[in-house]
Amino acid sequence: MFVNNMPRYEILSEQAMETLDKGWKRILTELGIEFMKPEALELFRAAGQRIEGDKVFLDPDFVLEQVAKAPREFDMQARNHANDVHIGGNHMVFSSNYGSPFVRRGDVRRDGSMEDFRNFCKLAQSFSAMDSVGGVVVEPNDAPLDSRHLDMVSTALMYTDKIIMGNVVSQQNALDTIAMGEMVFGSRQSIEEKPFCISLVNCNSPLRWDDRMLDAQFEYTKANQPVIMTPFLLMGAMSPVSIPAALVQQIAESLSGIALSQLIRPGAPVVFGSFLSNIDMQSGSPQFGTPESAIGLLCTGQIARRFGLPFRTGGGLNSSQTPDAQSAYESLMTMLPTFLAGTNFVMHTAGWLEGGLVASYEKYVMDVQVLESLQHEFTPLEIDEDSLAFGAHEEVGHGGHFLGAAHTMERFRDCFYRPFLSSSDNFERWNRLGARDTATRAGEIADKKIEEYEMPPMDPALREELEAFVARRRAELGD
């Protein structure tokens, strides 16, 4: 887990913030938000909010009162407590790609499989910069649809000892996830005192929370597991094309979902979610790594801090079809403002390709390389008398070089960050070693990590209990 102590990059003036405030409040009071779950409507009605059909017209002061009940920061527990994380403040937690139906490995693009899911668990476990394998890193299309969540959650719990993300496809999937957490961490009380999973609850933008997402939100929130209340905004499709309009819609949607979580269980942990980019106005395709998404990302950090909430946004997003230069520069266009904004929970850190349709082995390794580099870049520089190295000048003198100086010899092993993926060989050596480009080297590293992976220890009795639960639930679901 990385602690980002660098100053935040904030681009909104106080006047701009006040204008945004007027905008989201107007959406809540004049347009309302749809909640497609009767229990949600009843909670809002009991709290004195106006209901018309499935639409809730929210009093902004009421929303702010509810939002203020959410914790500014909270802790989460991992199976290995050395991997516990803190969400909020200056802490940044990094999770893998999420939701891809396809996989790319080398030149082959194909449906994702359960083996792929296990392999991405192995990669997440193998890289210390990654705090979680996440949730649906890739859809295992060779597993039955109704029960694949059992395989994914149990695999994440067994193949990694880091925090996980919960499954949100249905209420029952959420209950199954919670049940497995109770097994691994000992009791319902244990996971309520310190959550083990965090879940993505997406708004059906514009201005609608659908029943499936709300079903999952209710179960996780009742169990005190954090939910990331995230509007899904592609400007020009799910929101207007202007960044300010998208921001006020994002605030209205996210805060309305957070208010609901506090009605379900006051004080439950939540995360202000953001997934904001734009479409290509010529083709209609989603675009990622755009200047507009970076601006929205920076604004989101400032907005979430204004409400005293931890927030999620950013990641290694890109639109490229292969792990090429486009995928790298578009991802950096998103990851750099992710750090500048001080994002607390980062989804899609590693492996995202083709607008999220593809989870790529090579891109996973490339993204971890970027992540490690940015973590070093965002570590504050320590300046003291020793670091000024005056003695090295005295030793070398005018016109000399410092390669063999005592100061250099004492520090050469760790004075600079050494990237594990990059090549700085001269052309002749690089050519002699096979002229391997970045994607090729990344693929080799992924293969080696998977080959050398060792499963983290788990009590055999607990493993048997998890496997028995999965087998029983699979049979009950008819798979």
CATH architecture level-2 label of the domain at 2-8 and 67-377: Alpha-Beta Barrel
Q: Which oligomerization state do the chains in this entry correspond to?
A: single chain
Helix content estimate: 40-55%
Estimate the global geometry from the Cα principal axes.
globular
> What is the overall number of helices?
17
CATH superfamily of the domain at 2-8 and 67-377: Trimethylamine methyltransferase-like
Report the CATH topology name of the domain at 2-8 and 67-377: TIM Barrel
Mean pLDDT, nearest integer? 97
What share of the residues does DSSP label as strand, in percent?
Answer: 15-25%
Q: Uncertain regions: pLDDT < 50 for 5+ in a row?
A: none
**Biggest β-sheet description:** 8 strands, mixed
CATH class (first level) name of the domain at 2-8 and 67-377: Alpha Beta
The helix-and-strand class reads: alpha/beta
Count the E strands.
Answer: 21
Kindly provide the radius of gyration, computed on alpha-carbon positions and rounded to a whole number of angstroms: 24 Å
